Backbone:
């Protein structure tokens, strides 16, 4: 068990080891996340549309 002062010193030592991303890297990865989220939502929307159309066709045959 360490005392609070030692804990704070250890935290500061660890934080100083962190390699922080540049502004450009942050903007680039954020843009990639938005693009991939849009592509994923488009994909699942198309899958949903296909399943809904197929189910409607199957139910139309029996109904």
Residues:
């Amino acid at each position: 068990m360490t005392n609070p002062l030692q804990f704070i010193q250890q935290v500061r030592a660890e934080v100083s080891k962190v390699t922080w991303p540049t502004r450009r890297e942050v903007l680039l990865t954020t843009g990639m996340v938005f693009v991939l989220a849009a592509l994923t939502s488009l994909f699942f929307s198309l899958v949903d549309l296909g399943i809904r159309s197929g189910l409607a066709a199957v139910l139309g045959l029996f109904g």
